[in-house]
Amino acid sequence: MTPPxxxxxxxxxxxxxxxxxxxxxxxxxxxxxxxxxxxPGLFGLAVATADGELYETGDSGYAxxxxxxxxxxxxxxxMEDVGPAAIRKKVGADPTGLPFSSVMAxxxxxxxxxxxxxxxxxxxxxxxxxxxxxxxxWARILRTQRDxxxxxxxxxxxxxxxxxxxNAHNRAIAWLLYSADTxxxxxxxxCEVYTRQCSTLVTVTDLARMGATLxxxxxxxxxxxxxxxxxxxxxxxxxxxxxxxxxxxxxxxxVVGIPAKSGVxxxxxxxSPGNLAIAAFSPPLDVVGNSVRGGKAVAQIAIDLGLSLxxxxxxxx
Length: 317
Ligand code: GLU
What we know:
Elements: H1 6-20, H2 33-36, E1 44-49, E2 54-58, E3 64-65, H3 70-82, H4 84-90, H5 104-108, H6 119-128, H7 134-149, E4 154-155, H8 157-164, H9 168-179, H10 187-197, E5 200-202, H11 204-215, H12 233-243, H13 249-255, E6 260-262, E7 267-272, E8 276-281, H14 292-304
Antiparallel strand pairs: 1-2, 1-8, 3-5, 4-5, 6-7, 7-8
Bound molecules: glutamic acid.
Glutamic acid (GLU) binds near residues 100, 170, 198 and 289.
């Protein structure tokens, strides 16, 4: 598949930015104090293509907390380590139908998280990353984020401290998993490293490049480095389709038709396989946790560029 031409991509970005910049719907996440303090007016968009072109508009240089989008990259690493069959068996590949931090979802499914993209499944996935120490686990996860972006992504101590101090609910989830034998390392280590992986800072152009690495079948098109085994990419994208946009992932598939993942920091990353990735950042979130401006803009760009995976060529009768 050839990505659309550059002028068309830039026009789609600029049009979507203009259409949604004045949308003041939603509210910053406030259960993590740092996130509540980010300027709600920030709004950036970017596209990175599978052949290494980059387009951007708005606040594309602002670095924000990666949050839940980190789950995709840790999933990719754990899948490299243990293989897609083990991920499916131990974590799962279905939507939970419940909020991302739900304990009830665990109770309902025999303590199997169902998805690596909800908190329980992400903590379990972090525990599956091959490592003999906490520092090794963290170093491998950070290296993976950097390889996806092709740049030295860094941890924000400010975000990390804000999250580690307020993550009692995630610690409870980790202990619950551990008590049911569905966690594969020390529970507090897994939870701490998971919290750190959420606390790195990225720009919307980083996020677009990270998505483009998936769009290009696991090779970062900007550095040429293979980051993910080619055969694992479809499984990662399938997980994104099922749960990436929280409990509105089905609606997203229905309307937009490409896998995406959002985070409570206001980021959204959508992947058109073989083609390009779209990234957005804007802090105010809707009730399920998706960036309001980000979700609307990414949807508009994907529709504008005709990216839905479910469209077939029209046939005459
Ligand atoms: N660090 C956040 C948490 O664990 C990430 C949630 C998200 O972005 O969905 O609650």
